[in-house]
Amino acid sequence: MNGPLSVATIVVALVLAAWYFLRSALDRAPSRLDLLAMAGLSALVTVLVVVAVIGLFDGTRPSDTATFGGYLVTTVCFAPAAIWLARLEPTRWGSLILGVGAVVLPVLVLRLQQIASVIS
Question: Transmembrane stretches, by residue range (predicted)?
Fold first, then answer.
């Protein structure tokens, strides 16, 4: 779980979050490019989750596999949910929704790293 892919996911998510919060502060609705950027982040998160799932089969499992699985599902579903909600709200609040979604993703990735580091 620890590695360049996790770091890249966290950095990209935080940069996008700053961008979305700026757009919200400037009273701008999410553009098509904003939604595509969040979809790109979602793809990056999906790759991270697939790598983590493959890591479960190499013999080293976290001590609490059920919690780890729950975080994996939440992590992979969070960005698409933010995109869907932002499309429903085509105002500055849609940009804020994307920003909050982008801020939560690094927290989820860090939590996955913490759970994965405790091996049974």
Answer: 6-23, 35-56, 68-86, 93-112
Q: Are 35 and 87 in contact (CB under 8 A)?
A: yes
pLDDT tens sequence for the chain (120 residues): 668 999 999 999 999 999 999 999 999 999 999 999 999 999 999 999 999 888 888 877 788 889 999 999 999 999 999 999 999 999 999 999 999 999 999 999 999 998 888 765
- Tell me if 106 sits within 8 A of 9, measured CB to CB: yes
Q: How far apart are the first and last CA of the chain?
A: 16
Our measurement of the distance from residue 72's CA atom to the centroid of its chain's CA atoms, rounded to an integer in Å, reads 10
- In single-letter form, the type of residue at position 12 comes to V
The answer to whether the beta carbons of residues 61 and 119 sit under 8 Å apart is: yes
**At 46, is the secondary structure helix, strand, or coil?**
helix
Q: Quote the CA–CA distance of 85 and 79 in Å, as a whole number.
A: 10
